[in-house]
UniProtKB/TrEMBL annotation:
Quaternary data: Part of the 50S ribosomal subunit; part of the 5S rRNA/L5/L18/L25 subcomplex. Contacts the 5S and 23S rRNAs.
Function: This is one of the proteins that bind and probably mediate the attachment of the 5S RNA into the large ribosomal subunit, where it forms part of the central protuberance.
Keyword RNA-binding: yes
Keyword list, A-Z: Ribonucleoprotein, Ribosomal protein, RNA-binding, rRNA-binding
Pfam annotation, one family: Ribosomal_L18p
The encoding gene: rplR
Record-stated family: Belongs to the universal ribosomal protein uL18 family.
Record Gene3D superfamilies: 3.30.420.100
Identification of the protein by name: Large ribosomal subunit protein uL18
Keyword RNA-binding: yes
NCBIfam families linked: L18_bact (TIGR00060)
């Protein structure tokens, strides 16, 4: 029986997360969620089970509400890097979930790297 798109997505997400858990040396996880219209990211401490920082394209102070493009994702990436620095985090693992590493997800990661977050 063929897998549905959702089942394949969940398998891909679990494969990525399980690999991250094996190599995680106490670093937080930068988890990305992308919808058709928006993108959001969280910096998660898996040891304590808390979110250290977050950013989303839905935040009005970023000025990108309604933009559905790579530039908006790059702004979210730069914002999460700034908030991570304020939280005392300089390096993290990039958890793309089940999303492919291109387009908006790639733009977010590269913008976070350029803003000083080591991924």
């Amino acid at each position: 029986m063929a897998n549905t798109k959702r089942q394949l997505f969940i398998k891909r997400r679990m494969r990525v997360r399980n690999k991250l858990r094996k190599v995680n040396a106490g670093r937080p996880r930068l988890s990305v969620h992308r919808s058709n219209k928006n993108i959001s990211v969280q910096l998660i401490d898996d040891v304590n089970g808390v979110t250290l920082a977050s950013a989303s394209s839905l935040e009005k102070d970023l000025g990108i509400v309604g933009q559905n493009n790579v530039e908006a994702a790059a702004k979210v990436g730069a914002t999460i890097a700034e908030r991570a620095k304020k939280a005392g985090v300089s390096e993290a693992y990039f958890d793309r979930g089940g999303f492919l590493f291109h387009g908006k997800v790639k733009a977010l990661a590269e913008a976070a790297r350029e803003a000083g977050l080591k991924i």
